[in-house]
UniProtKB/TrEMBL annotation:
Official protein name in the record: Integral membrane protein
This protein's UniProt keywords: Membrane, Transmembrane, Transmembrane helix
Protein transport among keywords: no
Domain of life of the native organism: Bacteria
Transmembrane spans: 61-79, 86-104, 110-131, 143-162, 168-195, 202-221, 227-246, 253-274, 294-314
Length: 330
């Protein structure tokens, strides 16, 4: 079966899995994280560094699940014009606002999960049922941008893993962490290969390898700071997304890919601190404040991935076949 025929089914599966993950994290993990923070404050000389460390970690998990939803919709929705991307961005923003509203209401339990899932379903239906653009479809050029965003964010859920607070981490947190990281890897690879005539042979082993490593690292994140080194896989994952859609054909291309791998940690470090102020506003919507000892890493990956994705799409769309040279005949 060709990749284009698989794309809608994969997109629907990612959308559903991301929506369920977001709803469950919103309804159960957020409340459990706040309970863990209160319990840690009663322990002398121990506990979580920073009052909002667990809340920031769950915040990252919820935003990562929303990114999975948007990537799934990008695979599902037909067309490739600007209206499609505007609808996807608008749908993602609606979910981010809904995330803040639900969190500020401190909604918990299955009723809250059902409400969040209903909102996600309504947003997905509104985006998926829009009329496709009349413009000819060229998904490869555009979907690679969504794949880069997912690849940049996939390893970042590990940044708040701290061994001294392992016993305060909510039950199900690390399992959810591993699941969402696997979903981000699958979203990244799926966006990369969705427009290819056939699924490249390297796509399946790459997806399985990255998913296995990051999924296992997420499941072991409680009390194990060594898994933070898995963050360095973000650079190679971005390179895999790019290489699956357009293999390097020159020394300059190979140098550019090497620069991505080497520069990825430094770029994320800079972007993480530059997103502190915007994230303060997002946390204020949730009724929280920013912790000096914790950084919400996924928004930084989202910003870095969006810039890298837009640049990639722009450079590839600017390529035009050389015009034939006309000669004057005598």
């Amino acid at each position: 079966m060709t990749a284009r025929r698989l794309r809608p089914a994969v997109g629907l599966a990612l959308t559903a899995a991301g929506a369920v993950s977001w709803a469950l994290a919103l309804a159960f993990l957020d409340h459990a994280a706040r309970a863990g923070e209160k319990a840690s404050s009663a322990v002398d000389d121990e506990g979580i560094p920073g009052d909002r460390w667990l809340s920031l970690w769950v915040h990252d998990l919820r935003w990562a699940a929303i990114i999975v939803v948007v990537c799934g919709l990008a695979l599902t929705v037909r067309g490739s014009g600007w209206r499609k991307h505007a609808a996807l961005v608008a749908g993602g923003l609606v979910l981010l606002v809904a995330d803040g509203v639900f969190t500020s209401m401190r909604a918990t339990g299955w009723s809250a999960a059902a409400g969040a899932l209903g909102v996600a379903s309504a947003v997905a239906a509104a985006v998926a049922t829009r009329r496709p653009d009349a413009k000819a479809e060229d998904p490869q050029r555009h979907l690679v941008g969504y794949g880069i965003v997912a690849a940049c964010c996939a390893p970042l859920l590990l940044t708040n893993a701290q061994s001294e607070a392992g016993r305060f981490i909510p039950a199900g947190m690390t399992a959810g962490l591993g699941i969402v990281q696997v979903l981000l890897v699958l979203a990244a690879i799926s966006c990369a290969v969705s427009a290819m005539p056939h699924v490249p042979r390297a796509a399946v082993p790459l997806a399985a390898g990255f998913a296995a490593v990051l999924g296992t690292a997420g499941a072991l994140a409680a009390g194990n700071t060594d898994v933070v080194f898995a963050i360095l896989l973000g650079g190679p994952l971005v390179v895999a997304v790019l290489a699956l859609t357009a293999r390097p054909r020159s020394a300059r291309s190979y140098l550019a890919l090497a620069a991505i791998v080497a520069g990825y940690p430094f770029v994320l470090l800079v972007v993480s601190f530059t997103t502190v102020e915007p994230m303060a506003g997002a946390l204020a919507l949730s009724g929280d404040s920013y912790s000096a000892d914790g950084i919400a890493a996924v928004p930084a990956g989202l910003l870095a991935g969006a810039v890298a994705g837009l640049l990639t799409v722009w450079t590839r769309s600017s390529r035009r076949p050389a015009a034939p040279v006309q000669t004057n005949r005598a």
